[in-house]
Amino acid sequence: MKQTTFISFVLFTLLCSSAAIAQEIQVPFDSAGTMMSIDKGLEHSLQLFPGMEYFEEGRLFRKTDSTYSVEITQDSAHVITRSHISWSAQDRDTAELHITNYITREHPEFYLDQRGRANLMLGVTLLSIFAWGPSLPVMLGMTDPSQSVGAYLLFGAGASINLLGLTVSAATGYEDYSSIRYSDAAADLGDLNTAAQQNLRGVLNWNVGGEFIIKPVGLILRAGYAMDPSPYKGDPSSFNTQMITGGLGILLGPAAIMEFTYRRVSYRTDHLVYGGQNLAGADVTTIVNADDIVQNQALLSFSFRW
Hints:
Elements: H1 2-22, E1 25-27, E2 38-39, H2 40-46, E3 55-62, E4 68-76, E5 79-87, H3 89-106, H4 117-139, E6 148-163, E7 166-184, H5 190-199, E8 202-214, E9 219-228, E10 241-253, E11 256-277, E12 283-304
Antiparallel strand pairs: 1-3, 2-3, 3-4, 4-5, 6-7, 7-8, 8-9, 9-10, 10-11, 11-12
C-alpha cells in the first residue's frame, strides 16, 4: 500500500511539473521577434542581469498569467546551473525597448533581411542552366544554337570570417576551358572541340572582399578585388580581367538601406575588326592588337523590407 501511494505521488508530481512547463512559452527578447536568447557577450553590453556571476545564457518565457520568467544558465568551472527570475509585463517591455534600441544602434546588420539569399542562389543556378549555358552557341555564331550543347569542368570554394563588425571573405574557382565539349544533333562540332583543346587552358580565378559596419552612424563600407585569368594559351598576365569594387551603404532605418556601388573592370584583348577576302580573292584580316579596355560602372539602389 505504501509503495502504491509513493508511486502515485511521483506520477502526480511529474504530471504537475509537465503541466507547469507546458504553460510556459518561449518568446523573443526584442520587438522584431528574432532574438530568442541572450548570450554572455550581449549581456556584457546590455547589463540586463547585473551581479549575475558566470552568466552563460538567458531565455525568456511567458506564463499564462501574462507574467514572464527568465531562465538563466550559469557555467562555473564547467558546472552548469539554471535558475529562474520573474519579470512583470512592464519589466519585459522595458528590457525589449532597451535591447531593440541597442541592437539598432550598435548592430544594425542584425535586422537586415537575409531571407532572399536562398532565392538569389537558386535564381543564379537556374540562369546558368537555362540562359547563360544555351547562350554560348549564339555567341560562337553557331547556325542552330537551339540544338547545341556546351559543357566544361568547374570547381569552386570559398570562406568568410566576421570579427568586430568586419567581415572578410575569399573565394576561388578552377575552370578547365580545354575540357569544353560541344554537341549538335544536326552537325559535327568536332572541329570546335579540337580547337578548344588546342587553344584553351584551365585557369584559377579568385576574389577577395571585405565589409565593415560603422555602428554609431549606420554606415556599411565594402571593397573587393577579383582576378579572372585569360583562358587562352600563351596569353600574358596583362590579358587577365581585373575587377575592383567599392560600396557605401547607409541605413535609413531598421527596414531601409541606400547603397552606392562602384566597379572598375580592366583587361587587354585583341580585336578582329575584319576577316574575309578582297576583290582579288586574297584572304585579308584586320586586327587591333593589345587593346586596353576599361569599364567604370556606378549603381545607386534602395532596398526596403516589410
